Amino acid sequence: METSIVLESLRGLGPFAIYVGLSLGLMAIFLALYQFATIHNELALIRANNVSAAIAFAGAVVGYCLALVAAATNARALGEFLIWGVIAIIVQILVYWFFRALMMPDVSARIERGEIATGIVVGASSIVAGLIVSGAMAI
């Protein structure tokens, strides 16, 4: 009896591997586009131990992953998952641009200077955007 349960569970291994692979691919695309969309170079700043950049970048990654989880959970097909994954990338980039254009035109300079408050606000906003997108995907 236990063998049949294990074999039954393993039937989901193929779709699991596909969703994980696509998720990692979407994450790579997100990281590349987010790096390109910001004026500052997060990875260089993080390597230089800039806490503000690390917080902002981590928030963007977590926010995107929240939306990606919702896309995987709610999608009825791989194509739908990919579409929502791309929409979530766009939302995360728009959140950063919103801050740069409307709230803090000098957001990149503040992050480069290591202003932790700015990193927290940008990171938290990215997480909030991911939560909102996640909730909207469930409707």
Poorly predicted tracts of residues: none
Q: Main beta sheet: strand number and arrangement?
A: none
Provide the residue-averaged pLDDT: 92
The structure class reads mainly alpha
Helix and strand succession? HHHHHHH
Number of helices: 7
Portion in helices: over 70%
Distance between the termini: 39 Å
Q: How would you describe the shape?
A: elongated
Layout: helices, strands, pairs:
Layout: H1 2-10, H2 13-37, H3 42-47, H4 51-74, H5 78-103, H6 107-112, H7 116-137
Short description:
It contains seven helices and no strands.
Task: Write structural notes for this entry.
By secondary structure, the chain is mainly alpha-helical. The chain has one domain. 85% of the residues lie in helices and 0% in strands. It has seven helices and no strands. The chain is elongated and about 60 Å long.
What are the defining features of this structure?
mainly alpha; 139 residues; 7 helices; 85% helix; elongated
